[in-house]
Task: inverse folding
């Protein structure tokens, strides 16, 4: 599955209030990044790790939409090589996005400045780079995780259980 197609599919399954359009995906990204880290630390089954990678991807897609960032730009940023050299972890990048959003709420009446938006874009690219590395080490691709998550979301949508908690819905 191509990631652009996955992102379009992921966005179509999002259900949350418009007034939380940046806070919800930002907080979700941090939460799912933590769940992925926990899965890796606990040496969970491969499909569980793949599912968590897919969940992080889902929130990356929503962050891109809600911050007005082109998802294609994440793969072709001028700073992509610099970010790859830094090798920041996906959790650290997700937390930095949350910190940038918090500071915008505090300092700019919730408006995201162009400088903060640029840094958010870099952090989202960083998440994708780190996820690609996680997938490679686990023996699957980012596209495999996207396909796995897309099937899970399609099943939930068909059963009317997109909202709720946990994997057993």
Result:
């Amino acid at each position: 599955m191509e990631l652009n197609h996955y992102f379009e599919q992921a966005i179509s399954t999002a259900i949350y209030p418009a007034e939380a359009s940046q806070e919800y995906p930002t907080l979700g990204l941090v939460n799912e990044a933590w769940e992925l880290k926990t899965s890796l630390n606990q040496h969970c089954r491969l499909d569980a790790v793949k599912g968590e990678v897919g969940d992080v991807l889902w929130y990356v897609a929503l962050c891109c939409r809600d911050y007005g960032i082109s998802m294609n730009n994440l793969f072709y940023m001028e700073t992509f090589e610099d970010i790859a050299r830094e090798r920041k972890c996906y959790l650290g990048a997700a937390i930095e996005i949350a910190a940038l959003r918090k500071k915008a709420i505090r300092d700019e009446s919730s408006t995201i400045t162009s400088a903060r938006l640029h840094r958010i874009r870099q952090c989202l690219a960083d998440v994708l780079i780190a996820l690609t590395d996680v997938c490679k080490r686990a023996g699957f691709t980012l596209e495999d995780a996207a396909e796995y998550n897309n099937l899970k979301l399609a099943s939930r949508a068909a059963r009317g259980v997109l909202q709720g908690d946990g994997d057993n819905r």
Summary: Residues 78-87 have pLDDT under 50 and may be disordered. The radius of gyration is 15 Å.
